[in-house]
Structure formats: C-alpha cells, structure tokens
Amino acid sequence: MKINHKNFFLNNHPLVKKDITILRNKETNPEVFRAVVKRISLILAVEISKEYQVSKTEVETPLEKTSGYQLKQNVVLVPVLRAGLGMVSGFLEVIPDAKVGHIGLQRNEETLEPVEYYYKTPKDINHSQVILLDPMLATGGSSSEALKYLKRRGVKKCVFACLVAAPEGIKKIAIDHPDIPIYCAALDRKLNERGYILPGLGDAGDRTFGTL
Ligand code: PRP
Ligand code: URA
What we know:
Blueprint: E1 8-10, H1 14-24, H2 30-49, E2 54-60, E3 65-71, E4 75-81, H3 85-94, E5 99-100, E6 102-107, E7 114-120, E8 129-133, E9 136-137, H4 141-152, E10 157-165, H5 167-176, E11 182-187, E12 190-191, E13 197-198, H6 204-209
Parallel strand pairs: 1-11, 4-5, 4-6, 4-8, 8-10, 9-10, 10-11
Antiparallel strand pairs: 2-3, 6-7, 12-13
Helix pairs in contact: 1-2, 2-3
1-O-pyrophosphono-5-O-phosphono-alpha-D-ribofuranose is lined by residues 80, 82-83, 105-107, 112, 114, 134-143, 169, 195, 203-205.
C-alpha cells in the first residue's frame, strides 16, 4: 500500500517483520507480547535517535584526555496510557537517561473519540526532544489529541512512534500535524466498523496487560 505522506517512515527490518507476526498471533500470551513489544521498540528507538545531534565534550580515559560526544538535547518519552507503557522499557534501553511523561487517553468505544484522564510531563519538555509512544494508530484521534497537548506545552521537536498504523490514522495525523514524523513497524489495511485495525493485533492494552 502506498502512503502519500512524506513524514511517514515504515521500518523495514526483517526482525521487526518477524516480531510483528508474533504480536498478531492471537495465541501469544501477555508475557511474550510484552517482551516482543519491548524488542520492536528498541529497534524503533535506534532508528529515531540516529537523527539526534551531538556536541563535543572532553573525556578522560585511563591513559589520557580525549574528545567525545554528548547529546545536545534531553529526551522525553511520552507513552499514551495504557498501551504506550509497553513501549517505554525498549526505548529506555537505548536512551537510558530519557525522562518519562504520561498522557492518559481512552477511546470511547461508542463514538471512537478520545477521552482525557491524566497528564503529567516534565517542566523542561518544551526544550526537549520528545517521542510520543502509542502502539496503535487507528482513527488517529488519541495520538492527534496527545500531540495537541504536547504542542500546548511548547514542544517543538517531537516524533510519534507506533507499532501498527492504519491508513485512516496516518491521514489524520498528516492533516492535523503535518510537521510530526510518524515512525511505524507495520502498515495495515484499514479499520473495521468498530475502529479496530485490520488485520491488526486486537486491543493492544488488553493484550499487554492480560485484561481480555
Ligand atoms: C488504544 C491505543 C490508542 C488508541 C488508538 O487505546 O493504545 O491509544 O486505542 O485508537 P485511535 O487511533 O482510534 O484513537 P485505548 O483507547 O483502547 O485505551 P487502553 O490503552 O487503555 O486500552
Ligand atoms: N486500539 C487498539 O488497541 N487496537 C486497535 O486495533 C485499534 C485501537
């Protein structure tokens, strides 16, 4: 499927393709599901962070002084509760000094509109490199609301990392937030009449936390 959005990046790594298949399998239990979400998140974190800028610094080895590098900006991870929590540990594995904010949004399953219930992000988020984490980009309602909140907090540098995206959601983010790059592990066919991604992996929150 061709997506006409220059800020959409589909990861093509063979290990990601293999792992997404494990997530799709309805027999995969929450323990394995969480481990696989972590593994894919780690690969996405490496891909996203390769754009980060560094500045020079000094470092002393056991033998002599030399020059080294440090990240120019702090990184803040912002998972959308609940399912985004599953992606945090993989990202922290790659960017261990990142701060973590939280956004609580739950889709009303009748209207498919996101309902907000919690916001807590670090004070310096406006000067940070922000990564919004949510495994599912379905209608795009939740991630678009989360991005609006981050922009109201003054965030200027932000990307959105997800595991499975539907074309409908990508289109919404492209319209509402054309400046926000979307990094994704799988591009699926469409939404069903209940707003679930097909073929998808089901309800990511329930599969992560065993609340089916
Ligand atoms: C899921 C998912 C996204 C949202 C995607 O969360 O984690 O936040 O749905 O759907 P959308 O693109 O149509 O908004 P859900 O609302 O099921 O909450 P949960 O993580 O607490 O289960
Ligand atoms: N939220 C999910 O968890 N899964 C979907 O397929 C759509 C929204």
